[in-house]
Amino acid sequence: MTTELISNEWLNDLLLFGIYLVSSLVLLYLGKWVFRLTKPQIKVPLELVEKDNLAFSFAYIGYFAGLLLAVGSAIYGESNGLWIDLEDMAIFGILAIILLNLSSLIIDKINLRKFSIWKEITEDENVGMGIIEGANFLASGLIIFGAITGETDSLIFGIYTAVAYWAIAQIIIVATTALYDRFTPYSLHDEIEKDNNAAGVAFAGLIIALANLIRHGLMGDFESWDDTLIEVAYETGIGLVVLPVIRTLVDRILLPGRKLSDEIAGQDKPNVGAGLIEALAYVGGSVLIIWCI
Predict the structure, then answer these.
(1) Is the pLDDT at 173 greater than 70, yes or no?
(2) pLDDT computed for residue 150 by the predictor
(3) How confident is residue 63, by pLDDT bands cut at 50, 70 and 90?
(4) CB burial class (10 A; 0-12, 13-18, 19+) of residue 182?
(5) What are the angstrom distances between the C-alpha of 67 and each of 24, 29, 137, 205, 213?
(6) φ and ψ at 199, to 5 degrees?
(7) Whole-prediction pTM value?
């Protein structure tokens, strides 16, 4: 009798696993369709297969990495029953896809508005720009994951809080981009437009690090607006203070006698390795901050 009960439970769990997996794959396919719908000028097979466009590959892979996190936010956590779970997956999965694609529009029209991101990626095959766009998608996926996970009083209120938190996070990233561009000894726009891959990698690391901190501040059940906003402000504020310090320490330890900024934008051939070191300083710093809080 016990063996039969265990067998039935195992079969039931396997069936539920299959349903959730298929539902997730449907949402991923929908995300792929929305990407193509919102960017009709881009021929994905042409960029990936015919042109072997590495810049587009970075951006496209970043989109699906962010999409995976965004879709995952709809199924993360304890089950509320199959039908309720499927309803949440459909609603929040579609919402996540919409927000993810809106984030691409924001970085194109606001953060890096001096040129067309997708022109740089598809026509100029600017790898640094592709890395930034891919990182932006991944960062947005992290933010959406934090905004959607957790319990709220109702479905409508859950949608409302998710959109509001996502919008606040976008404002933070826009402001941080402006600060970064102002305080670095080089112009981010100019370096990216010059196909400086090192500058693109370094900035991509900052975007992901900041999103990771925002995600951690947003995660958990909703208690009040004040509690969540204070937590996000607290962790983001610490990040804005500590991450530059960590970056400076990494600069001194890993590149003694050299400056990361000079290696990234102060020579004829930008040092992509230096850009990776700066990106690691930001991402690793965000992980350390989360662990220490």
Answers:
(1) yes
(2) 65
(3) very high
(4) exposed
(5) 10, 10, 8, 18, 19
(6) -65, -40
(7) 0.90
